[in-house]
């Protein structure tokens, strides 16, 4: 069943209003990883809840309790559960998204204010934190709802929504909610399939459907010693320095070629056979795609298959930052008393945080022991999630393929994503249904980075895609 042509033209004729709604959403700095912005994540939940109810969705805000972040006890933002339609004759799709965002400051190198949506009329880019990850896609669903609500038309399927405000900080509290509500009589009972729009096309040209995500294990390794910060002129070459120890340890984790140097981690993953390599070779992708998205010619290899495998089917270790280090302008001659290095490993099947964590901890302890330092080492696991893979031959994917062909006139790439959305696997396992990732944005959107953007055409055609997918879902046989 194709989407009504009135729906497609409604999306086109309301594009400016939809972009204004995106600007309103971007203006709320709902940064889940920064305690000082927790009130904004709550404000974002209220804003989204009010949009949903105005569009006919029955909602409830679910209190997820409290947690400790950076030593501070904080209330977790609520999850928003919503339902529209309860027709036993129709399929029921669960739609997940997150309304929190990564941190962003103009001083990080943004060309414009990150929380003021900048509309570049020449390029068609909508620039602002959360435009692509994940406020644009969430608003895509609202655009679909608005057409049906204003025209008093029933949706082709029943929809159950699950929106959270902690995805960028480990989805705290959500797994328990999903498991509980997936049981008989729970809010998600009766769901036939799941759709998540929270990732990106592989390139800037070809729409994609995604059937795999990497998992994640995130670590904080702290070295402390001196009772306070010290003067390097007085204490240099006199005491064990925490920063020196930390840099030494961090340098043992990963090679400049991306190989993980922690014994047993890379080795857990079976090598790709020729048949699997042919899948990557067939994807519409060039080394220039990754280099343009990265903003420099820095790909680890000139071989497209090797680069794609590095992103999709191999683990990676990235060092993210050092807390407590001197990082301001100028030349302060300090020996920091306590420093914490933060790094994470993206995991692929059959790796899990439970299997990888002991290897990492043993490696860190051994590396520290070799230094012969009198400082103290401690290791924390900040959060983790397992990798996920789905059956892309399922009718849920077939419906999305048809919708993509109808809206974009081309077949989608079938991709595995390098990022992580840990709740994906929880949905798949606790509901026992197929989960589809249906991205809206392009591979060069710069999610988590400076100047994050969503192209106007991806927002508008992407809204059509989400609506068309619902119609194809209604038509397809299970
Ligand atoms: N769009 C999904 C996404 O960006 N997920 C994050 C999840 C995460 C985990 N810890 C911090 N963020 C990702 O980095 O993949
Ligand atoms: Zn996201
Ligand atoms: Zn993200």
TrEMBL record:
Q: Where does Mn(2+) 1 bind?
A: 133, 168, 448
Which terms does the UniProt entry file under GO BP? Answer: proteolysis
Q: Keywords of this protein's UniProt record, alphabetized?
A: Hydrolase, Manganese, Metal-binding, Metalloprotease, Protease
Active-site residues, record numbering mapped to chain: 100, 167
Q: Where does substrate bind?
A: 198, 231, 333, 346, 420, 448
Cofactor: how bound: Binds 2 manganese ions per subunit.
Q: Name one GO molecular function term.
A: metal ion binding
- Which positions fall inside the Peptidase M20 dimerisation domain? 211-368
Q: Which Pfam families match?
A: M20_dimer, Peptidase_M20
| Cofactor(s) listed | Mn(2+)
The entry's Mn(2+) 2-binding residues are 98, 133, 198
- Residues of the site described as Important for catalytic activity: 231
The similarity annotation says: Belongs to the peptidase M20A family.
Q: What is this protein called?
A: Peptidase M20 dimerisation domain-containing protein
Q: Which organism is it from?
A: Hypholoma sublateritium (strain FD-334 SS-4)
């Amino acid at each position: 069943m194709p989407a009504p042509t009135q729906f497609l033209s409604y999306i086109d004729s309301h594009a400016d209003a939809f972009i204004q709604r995106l600007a309103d959403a971007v203006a709320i700095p709902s940064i889940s990883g920064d305690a000082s912005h927790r009130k904004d994540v709550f404000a974002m939940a209220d804003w989204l809840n009010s949009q949903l109810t105005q569009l006919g969705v029955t909602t409830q805000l679910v209190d997820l309790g409290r947690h400790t972040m950076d030593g501070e006890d904080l209330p977790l933002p609520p999850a928003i559960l919503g339902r529209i339609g309860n027709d036993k004759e129709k399929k029921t799709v669960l739609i997940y998204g997150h309304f929190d965002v990564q941190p962003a400051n103009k001083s990080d190198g943004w060309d414009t204010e990150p929380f003021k949506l900048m509309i570049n009329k020449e390029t068609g880019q909508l620039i602002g934190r959360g435009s692509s990850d994940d406020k644009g896609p969430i608003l895509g669903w609202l655009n679909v709802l608005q057409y049906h609500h204003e025209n008093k038309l029933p949706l082709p399927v029943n929809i159950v929504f699950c929106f959270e405000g902690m995805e960028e900080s480990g989805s705290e509290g959500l797994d328990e909610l999903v498991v509980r509500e997936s049981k008989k009589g729970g809010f998600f009972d009766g769901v036939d399939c799941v759709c998540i729009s929270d990732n990106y096309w592989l390139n800037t040209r070809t729409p994609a459907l995604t059937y795999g995500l990497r998992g994640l294990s995130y670590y904080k390794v702290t070295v402390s010693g001196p009772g306070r910060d010290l003067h390097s002129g007085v204490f240099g070459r006199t005491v064990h320095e925490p920063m020196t120890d930390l840099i030494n340890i961090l340098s043992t984790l990963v090679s400049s070629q991306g190989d993980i140097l922690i014994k047993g981690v890379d080795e857990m993953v079976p090598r790709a056979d020729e048949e699997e390599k042919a899948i990557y070779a067939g994807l519409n992708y060039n080394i220039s795609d990754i280099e343009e998205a990265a903003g420099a010619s820095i790909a680890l290899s000139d071989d497209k298959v090797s680069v794609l495998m590095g992103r999709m089917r191999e683990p990676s270790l990235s060092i993210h930052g050092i807390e407590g280090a001197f990082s301001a302008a100028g030349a302060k001659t300090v020996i920091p008393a306590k420093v914490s290095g933060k790094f994470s490993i993206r995991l692929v099947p059959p790796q899990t945080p439970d299997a990888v964590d002991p290897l990492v901890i043993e490696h860190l302890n051994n590396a520290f022991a070799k230094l012969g330092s009198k400082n103290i080492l401690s290791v924390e696991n900040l959060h983790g999630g397992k990798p996920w893979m789905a059956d892309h031959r399922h009718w849920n994917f077939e419906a999305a393929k048809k919708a993509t062909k109808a809206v974009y006139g081309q077949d989608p790439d079938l991709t595995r994503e390098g990022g992580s959305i840990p709740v994906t696997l929880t949905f798949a396992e606790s509901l026992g249904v197929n989960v589809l990732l249906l991205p809206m944005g392009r591979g060069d959107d710069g999610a988590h980075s400076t100047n994050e953007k969503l192209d106007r055409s991806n927002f508008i055609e992407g809204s059509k895609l989400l609506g068309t997918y619902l119609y194809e879902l209604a038509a397809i046989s299970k």
